[in-house]
Amino acid sequence: MNFLEITYHPIGIIYSPFKDIEGVPIQPSAAQGIKGTIKIKEEFIDGLKDLDGFSHIILVYHFHLSKEYSLSVVPFMDDTLHGVFATRAPKRPNAIGISIVKLIKIENNILHIENIDIVDGTPLLDIKPFVREFDDLKEYRKGWLSERINLLKEIKSDKRFK
Amino acid sequence: MNFLEITYHPIGIIYSPFKDIEGVPIQPSAAQGIKGTIKIKEEFIDGLKDLDGFSHIILVYHFHLSKEYSLSVVPFMDDTLHGVFATRAPKRPNAIGISIVKLIKIENNILHIENIDIVDGTPLLDIKPFVREFDDLKEYRKGWLSERINLLKEIKSDKRFK
Lengths: 162, 162
Prior knowledge:
- Chain A contains no helices and nine strands.
- By secondary structure, chain A is mainly β.
- In chain A, the strands form two sheets. Chain A has a six-stranded antiparallel β-barrel. A two-stranded antiparallel ribbon of chain A has the order 5-6.
- The first copy, chain A, is globular and about 45 Å long.
- Chain A starts with 5 loop residues before the first strand and ends in a 33-residue tail after the last strand.
């Protein structure tokens, strides 16, 4: 097995109303209408061409406030332990986060976005267009979340992953 | 703006029938029934608990065959230039790939998956459960792909991003 080290450099920074890890909506669908911006480094502006045709974009970012990881976590959406890879908890072996947000407009190197469930100042690693047809989602099951998904809009993050 | 460097270590390796960058299906929905496996490093096995309840998982991986990047690319799905962030092309400033694949079963540290559009030997960075309800996808638009999406199952990757 390959044990190489992989190094990335942020392409920009995500700005949001959430100054702290506590009180953040759990996922974009629980963050409807919450606005933020992304400042892309000037050197990458040409990479944004035609992105504005997409209504939704996938943000890939680094959970910069997560310093360690646990393999077993009690996620915000439950009160029992699950393997970290069966959750979206931020304290992961590689602290990578993904959110699909709504793209409102692009002005030069500033992206205006909505439905943001991300802490202010988060380093952005990549942007991809969201394309529904790329995924084959037949026979969908959602595991331990089946009984809990109705709580999504009630629950906010707390201090547990600080 | 924050210019820090972010280092990750693979949690495992993805194995697939695609030994080369050429001829790979463009996305999971064009790779239906194509089987692969993931070998997770032994030290992370506890993180897989309860993952088997989910039918679909999000793989976050490193495009290890992409050595450089371009900000303007002609993606497999088109014949004109687009900003790289408006495409899923592998030659990105941070060569991170995302695929939602079907999880068939887990045996110890081996995940059996289906709908795989990933090159054999790809280093895996993270696994997340796919949860449809986490994303708010109203008013969906797919930009330059609107006119091209019907080609998804006909087109395979070629040498352009080698």
